[in-house]
């Protein structure tokens, strides 16, 4: 059995999509949801789906104790689905090429510290972009960099607001993230 952990800081709609997508699989499962926000609705979504949860401080992410906990659970892939913290180098080195991030823009544009959620959509609209989208990528020690796995785009429409653009971006996320993660499953070490 291959085990995936989701890191989420907020509402957890993408986490829920992943949990639902992998629910009845025999080869892979969402084994854990980790949050740095004890109030994150993602925690409730995971608990309601029977997925174990853990709240950690960002300062703990690179510790031997936390990394050891993930390894003892046989975690083969980490998915950042709405997780706002920078992942420490120690965690990246412990899980090389096995940490995937979802970003709500077409990187390299509109990435970096502070570029998440509504902030991204406001920046896209302010720049007069004709399209926006999502990027799913392997992470490195910098915000929103690393090897791209998938990009999907949607048109920016006249009269778009951050909310209307966000709706279309969320639709892309809900469709593409489970499929992209599914494509990585054969390469996840069976720990």
3D structure, described in words:
The protein has 191 residues and is of the alpha/beta class. The chain has one domain: Rossmann fold (3-Layer(aba) Sandwich). It is built from six helices and seven strands; from the N terminus they run βαβαβαβαβαββα. α1 (13-22) runs parallel beside α6 and α5 packs across α6. The mean pLDDT is 96.
With helices defined by DSSP (H or I, 4 residues minimum), what is the helix count?
6
CATH superfamily: Formyl transferase, N-terminal domain
CATH top level class name: Alpha Beta
Q: Based on CA inertia axes, which overall geometry fits?
A: globular
Biggest β-sheet, characterized? Answer: 7 strands, mixed
Q: Taking Cα atoms only, what radius of gyration do you get, to the nearest Å?
A: 16 Å
CATH topology-level fold name? Rossmann fold
The run of helices and strands is EHEHEHEHEHEEH
| CATH architecture call | 3-Layer(aba) Sandwich
Tell me the strand order in the biggest sheet.
Answer: 3-2-1-4-5-6-7
Q: Poorly predicted ranges (pLDDT <50, ≥5 residues)?
A: none
Q: How many distinct folded domains?
A: 1
Structural class: alpha/beta
Overall mean pLDDT: 96
């Amino acid at each position: 059995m291959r085990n995936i952990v989701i890191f989420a800081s907020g509402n957890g709609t993408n986490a829920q999509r992943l949990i639902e997508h992998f629910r009845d699989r025999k080869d892979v499962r969402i084994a854990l949801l980790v949050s740095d926000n004890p109030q994150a609705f993602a925690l409730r979504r995971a608990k309601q789906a029977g997925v174990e949860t853990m709240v950690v401080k960002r300062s703990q992410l690179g510790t031997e104790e936390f990394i050891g906990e993930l390894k003892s659970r046989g975690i083969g892939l980490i998915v950042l689905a709405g997780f706002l913290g920078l992942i420490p180098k120690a965690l990246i080195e412990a899980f090389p090429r096995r940490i995937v991030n979802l970003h709500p823009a077409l990187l390299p544009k509109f990435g970096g510290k502070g570029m998440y959620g509504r902030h991204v959509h406001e920046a896209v609209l302010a720049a007069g972009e004709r399209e926006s989208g999502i990027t799913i990528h392997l992470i490195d020690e910098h915000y929103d960099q690393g090897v791209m796995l998938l990009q999907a785009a949607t048109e920016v429409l006249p009269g778009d607001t951050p909310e209307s653009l966000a709706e279309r971006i969320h639709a892309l996320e809900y469709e593409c993230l489970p499929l992209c993660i599914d494509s990585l499953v054969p390469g996840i070490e069976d720990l």
